[in-house]
Amino acid sequence: DAKTTQPPSMDCAEGRAANLPCNHSTISGNEYVYWYRQIHSQGPQYIIHGLKNNETNEMASLIITEDRKSSTLILPHATLRDTAVYYCIVRVAQVNSGYSTLTFGKGTMLLVSP
Amino acid sequence: DTAVSQTPKYLVTQMGNDKSIKCEQNLGHDTMYWYKQDSKKFLKIMFSYNNKELIINETVPNRFSPKSPDKAHLNLHINSLELGDSAVYFCASSQDQGLASNEQFFGPGTRLTVL
Predict the structure, then answer these.
(1) How do residues A70-79 score in pLDDT, each as one tens digit?
(2) Under an 8 Å CB criterion, which residues of B touch A?
(3) What residue of A is the nearest CA neighbor of B4?
(4) Fewer beta carbons within 10 angstroms: which end of chain A, N or C?
């Protein structure tokens, strides 16, 4: 799986949009971009994923550049409960069952303040 | 209602002991995993099981033996515990159908402390 680069930490004011960047310059054409987050003392939680097009769900939006070498996770209105470590992961699209494991990096520690 | 549950949540034990961590998922998924998160917070895959069969064993010492009695359960047994085994262990599951686009659901973790 391609490696990703994320800033170690970011701050965001409550109610503002949090924009978390991720570089994945070696991504292959068959690799998805995934985002997970881990709130303190909890298990990782899936947020969103995408291949080429921008994606949006009830939690966040994912913007992928046209060359797919970077992406941005957007939390439109950050709350205190969004304070967590956010992981950007790239993974191949087609795998045999059971081989779709996740390779976590160091992630970005997002601190949302009042 | 918990999708992926683990027991116990905390486990404190002496070096050399044998212990087990249990994991159950009620999502009907056919693939389950064990991950280890060390003191530096790195989260690494240990095992992957699909339909009760071992698929991935990521260079884990053979003191660690996963057991899957059925698709809904994947237990982790650890023999001769060592100080370095102290970590948080996460169980996860997913519904794999040949696509990596399926998300993984994680349990709350088991914090193992070896004294």
Answers:
(1) 999 999 999 9
(2) 4, 30-31, 33, 41-45, 48-51, 53, 55-56, 90, 92, 94, 96-109
(3) A43
(4) C
